[in-house]
Predict the structure of Cytochrome P450.
Amino acid sequence: MFAATSLVLWGVVLLLLLYRLLRPLYSRPGKNFPPGPPGSVPVLGGYGLLLLINYYHLHKAATALGDFYRTKILGLWLKDYPTVVVNDLAVAREVLNRKEFDGRPDLYLARMRDKGFKLRGIFFTDGPSWKEQRWFILRYLRDYGFGRRFVQHEAEVNSELLELVDLLKYGAKHEHEKAIVRADGYAKCPNVFFSCFANAFLQILSGERLCREETGVLYETGANAMIFQRNGDDYGTILSFLPWLRYVYPFSKKYNVIRQASLNVNGFIETIIEKYQRTFDENHVRCFLDLYFREMVKCTPQDPNFTFQQDQLILGLVDFFFPAISGATTQMALLMERLLHNPDAVRRMQREIDEVVGYGRLPTLDDRPQLAYTEATLREGMRIDTLVPSGIAHRVLDDTSLRGYELPKDTLVLIGLDAVHNQKEYWGDPECFRPERFLDANGKLCLAKDISLPFGAGKRLCAGETFARNIMFLTLAALMQNFNLRQLPGARLPDLSKRATGVIITPEDYWLKFEPR
Ligand code: HEM
């Protein structure tokens, strides 16, 4: 009798355990959550499913899953997070412009960027601290030329571009440049852009840039930033969902690589900060850094309400420096590959630049309205090679609804920027590289035709959009004015379908000759 009772009891316990294990398979987050796979797949949830569908390109896996469920608003669980992936342009615009979607999730990948594993900076924070830091940094960087026309900064960028042209035309002058431009003239991409783009930002930040002899550290820091970009993924990596895996090989290896690369990038920014902090004088403001130090003096370090603190400054600046050195440069490298496939676009840009600018000087932002085809080419490059394929994850701040679906507070929202840049309904022939799509009948740039969202939109709009667009335009125009693009002898055209997806889309490092015209 006793044995039978305990057997029944064990049976009940087993059933309860099975129920507990399998229940998530069928449960959905909320009554009317967007369509998607049935509940949480054990252990990793929808993240595991996405990995199974397309291990290397999670944004493509999400699009395939959306197609399977015939929805552009896909609902799934990423481990414990209810998650929505938006793959429609109109819905994406709506989400990005509604303030209930302005939060950021607390992902371990984001914490790994900070020495003390805290959420700091702009990218991965929300609430009052995010608002305050974003506002302060943008407001005061602006005074030194960030995000607007500023004669002094444009002159410095012009000198920086002349050095890039010199490096590409006449080769390495300094030892560290030999790893970037080989003796036979081939330049490593995206690395060849690191110094120029980083210096353009440093100039705004500190009023100084590194001279050519000193730029070795910029190439090294750029390479570290690329390690983070390539080893992370657009959903936060498996470490964000099972952080304890950092103790288990081979995840521990990935963890160490990402962590070290992040700390190296932070380390560079710390050296810049320390240099100015040593000689800080409250009564004599030299640059943006001094303005921030002044706020820090007013704060009590222990007071959690004051956010002008050292770790906040480091990560806040990394959030600007990091995309400048690794994001915008990668976009340039993607564009160069794209142009190898489209020599007509190169010829057309060259004709336009020859007519408008000639050869005596580099193109400037004043020339931009007349260089409509060059501008359109850059915009088309950003559409077809969407740098940040899933945007940066947002978080729902309060229970809300979206197009008839109910989304609970803390739902993660990913905007499928790559998917919306390839929606046939909007673009007709999204697979074609066609800069003309942004021009009117008179060949003028028609901004109304550019409905792409490479920088997102709304309150979380990329904080570096204008800076990025300006420096990329100037670099593209300078390169087209001075060079033709040549591949290594015997090399095939790059296979654009083989690009890797990390946090951003990256090409493999490749060698390209900028052959003087
Ligand atoms: C081609 C170059 C770039 C592209 C395509 C790009 C794209 C993006 C995207 C898609 C986001 C996320 C928007 C969202 O959350 O919905 C973002 C955020 C951000 N970007 Fe960029 N970006 C680029 C370059 C830059 C540069 C050069 C900087 C700074 C110098 C920068 C600074 C930032 C910052 C600080 C954020 C976080 C904004 C926030 O969360 O409030 N980006 N960017």
